[in-house]
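Q: Predict the assembly, please.
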Amino acid sequence: MAKSEVAAGSRRTLMDMFVEGARRGWNIATTNMMPNVIMAFVLIQALKVTGLLDIIGKVFGPVMALWGLPGEAAAVLVASFMSMGGGVGVAASLYTAKKLSGADITVLMPAIFLMGALVQYMGRCLGTAEVDSRYWSHIIAICVINALLAMWVMRAILIFF
Amino acid sequence: MNKEHLLQTDEKVTWVSYAALLFAIVFFSGIFSTAKGWLQVLDFTVLQGSFGTIGEGGKEVFRGSGGTGARDGFLFALTLMPSVILALGVISVVEGLGGLAAAQKLMSPLLKPLIGIPGICGLALIASLQSTDAGAGMTKTLYESGAITDDERTVFATFQISADATITNYFSSGAALFAFLGTPIIVPFVVILVFKIVGANLMRLYLKKVGQKTKNSPAAA
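A: Predicted assembly structure:
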């Protein structure tokens, strides 16, 4: 394939580099982002038609109010824990459903990643690096603490925008 | 993976590398998003452009409004794809020009004071910002080659796993939310990096507190 020839030499042009990255972007977008977004939109639709979304909003309202967020934001955090794409998708569909505002999304943004995809990253990061399994629970707890603290920081930063 | 390769990057860091890094920061920071004239070419949202509009009054893009469920999700994802493709294309150029190697060089002396891990972890750290698996694999090798202790590995892994593969995930999945953000794109990204460091230090403090004896890693590998 011509691609490997180009990659091997040092004469890779900026266009080659861009196209290579763009191709990766296409692959991630189609195989990862889109399925996750569709999953999240279907999930929110299902929660909406069953009335569960309103219940989630009410139940988690008082907790999420700590960060000035509506209760539905809890769904974003739970989904993030499973997968970052899922968390992003749930956030986007809640925005579309007018349950979250732009400011809410901004507050949630770092948290989605800081506690994101921990279910799979336990294996892929901690497992691969062979981190002492005694500390896994502590590490997961720290990720969640990171996320919760970051939401307050984002809330504070938003004051300046 | 070749072990020597982990300890030093063979990439030369030149002024081009620093320029590429600076460009990346400026490009995603949104500084020039409202600039007049040629400077706006230095902005992600400007190069991203906009969709043409359809419908009466030309107010809607092809996604329309009021959609729900899988169909709306599909069209929404479609509206995001150009951002993901553009972002990863630009990051690839920055990487190809040595921008990430420059970041590594700038960061290496800071690793000890900031996270408590030796500067030799710089390459693995930069790799972990792009790929979870690459970062974790290199960390394992760093431990096995005796470059870091068991505790340092635990702290480093804590840094990595919180918002793992930060650059890749933030600029691909995260692109779905860029349009709704109330701050420049780079602000939540910086907050993420800061908290990765905070998290690593929480682990560092914890390990210190439990008085875990630092096991020196085996010299053989």
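DSSP finds eight helices and no strands in chain A. Chain A touches chain B through 74 residues (CB under 8 Å).
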